[in-house]
Design brief:
By secondary structure, this protein is an alpha/beta fold. It is about 40% helix and about 20% strand.
């Protein structure tokens, strides 16, 4: 799991505090403290698993000596009915951690599944699938991790990673040429510049500035094909804006290098996984 343990533990602890104010009025009054139990994670749909270690960490924080028997790993393709893992420990802890664990693994598996679908739709083309910064506050690391598990690639993590000039930056910064020139005079040699363009004329101006990456914003497939010809490898081309499962293949076939999709994280459907007590 390529995730920072301190971040994961803080995320889980905040989620548990949000879910259990000071007592679980159902579990604590119903279930004897000494009762032991087992429960199994079961896939209820077909897709890609992601976030199992994060989900298991929920129970480990509640009970350090809990046990887990794992049958699937992150990146595995699941079929409906597959048993993913079995957890064993105090029944109270299983019940208290159930919703937090499921919220995390369902969301992460949903992102991985959506990404994997997009990756498969562009197979055989030059295009790679990337995410964006359109992530839920506080969840960016696990969402971006899930994209990689699904076969996608990460765009910049935050505003410090890359100087990305979108339309508002260009409009506020005196136009394409002035904005890029000003940045390049100040940026360190390790920082790349990405520039968003809306027309082919803007693309030509962007190429003259020697921007490293050029984003083609909401262009038609015909415009993107022309952009690839005009660029002729002088910069990486990224397609973005309202790309769907129905249009992604046509976009990839224009010859662009990268297709970035905010929908992979900002509007993804949770993957259906249940946690069932074994009687």
């Amino acid at each position: 799991m390529m995730l920072n343990k301190f971040y994961i533990d803080r995320l889980i602890e905040n989620a548990l505090l949000e879910d259990i104010n000071y007592i679980d009025v159902a579990t604590d009054y119903l279930i004897p403290e000494e009762q032991e139990g087992k429960a199994q994670f079961i896939a209820k749909a077909d897709g890609v698993l992601c976030g199992l270690d994060v989900a298991l960490r929920v129970f480990e924080l509640l009970q350090p000596d809990f046990k887990a028997e794992v049958f699937k790993r992150d990146g595995d393709e699941l079929k409906s009915g597959d048993v993913i893992a079995v957890v064993s420990g105090k029944t109270r802890n299983i019940l208290k951690g159930e919703r937090t664990a499921l919220n995390l693994i369902q969301h992460m598996s949903g992102v991985a599944t959506a990404t994997n679908k997009a990756v498969k739709l562009v197979e055989g083309t030059n295009a790679s699938i990337a995410d964006t910064r359109k992530t839920l506050p506080g969840l960016r690391p696990i969402e971006k991790y899930a994209v990689t598990v699904g076969g996608g690639r990460n765009h910049r993590y935050n505003l410090s990673d890359c100087a990305m000039l979108k339309d508002n930056h260009v409009d506020a910064g005196g136009g394409i040429t002035n904005a890029v020139r000003t940045l390049k005079e100040k940026l360190g040699h390790t920082v790349k510049v990405e520039l968003e363009v809306r027309t082919l004329d803007e693309l030509r101006e962007a190429l003259a500035t020697e921007a490293d990456i050029i984003m083609l914003d909401n262009m038609s497939c015909e415009e993107m094909k022309q952009a690839v010809e005009i660029t002729a490898g002088k910069a990486k081309l990224e397609a973005s804006g309202n790309i769907t499962d129905e249009t992604i293949r046509a976009v990839a076939e224009t010859g662009v290098d990268i297709i970035s999709m905010g929908a992979l994280t900002h509007s993804v459907k949770a993957f259906d996984i249940s946690l069932k007590i074994i009687k």
